[in-house]
Specification:
single chain; 198 residues; mainly beta; Immunoglobulin-like; 2 domains; six-stranded mixed β-sheet; five-stranded antiparallel β-sheet; 17 strands; disordered N terminus
Length: 198
């Protein structure tokens, strides 16, 4: 947790506003924020936001920023402003699709046949967010013909497994048109992932 100390403007205490896990707020998700004024009971402390929604949830606050790139959290005690802090606002990065734990490179045919689904992961991101794969396609080129099979959800179809079973060493399999639904209910299209059978 990164603490951000704010100089109080009209009381002798300092207000403390800390974004839990990081100091950036992300659109489309709940951002827990710790807000406190040392020496002041929590029920006397209130907070407002310039861009989005902020709500008290137990011992912390939950922030959902809107479209602007910056948002200001204003802290007050007994309805008297004591401090404010500006946060940067970003979009949650797109996840990466993975198959058998990888998103590119060589793959054993046996491993490909045993793998039942494709998944999505967020790399270098401090939050444990889940994106559910909602659909994808498998594309294989064989004897000069492009064969494509579609799947709803994240599971490989029986035809996809049959297509992989007929692949030879050096042949490429491509997962594309990969769609994932984020925690905000919005659908993101992920980059295709390509493997070479070995």
């Amino acid at each position: 947790m990164i603490s951000l100390f704010l100089n109080a403007q009209s009381v002798t205490n300092d207000a403390v506003v800390a974004a839990i896990n990081m100091n950036i707020l992300y659109r489309g998700m709940d951002n827990p924020v710790a807000i406190a004024v040392p020496g002041v009971k929590a029920e006397r402390v209130n907070a407002t936001i310039s861009n989005g929604i902020i709500e008290k949830n137990g011992q912390q606050w939950i922030v959902n920023p809107a479209d602007q790139d910056l948002t200001i959290i204003t802290v007050s005690v007994d309805n008297k402003k004591v401090a404010e802090k500006t946060f940067r606002v970003k979009n949650v990065p797109n996840p990466v699709a993975v198959f058998a734990g990888k998103n590119e490179g060589e793959i054993l045919k046996e491993t490909a046949l045993k793998t039942q689904s494709i998944e999505s992961v967020l790399t270098d991101f401090g939050w444990d967010l889940k994106f559910a794969i909602s659909s994808f396609s498998l594309e294989i080129t064989s004897n000069g013909y492009v064969i494509t099979e579609n799947s709803i959800g994240n599971k490989l179809t029986d035809k996809m497994k049959s297509m992989i079973s007929k692949c030879i060493t050096g042949q490429k399999i491509v997962f594309k048109n990969i769609k994932a639904i984020g925690p905000d209910g919005k659908t993101k299209e992920l980059f295709p992932i390509t493997f070479t059978i070995k």
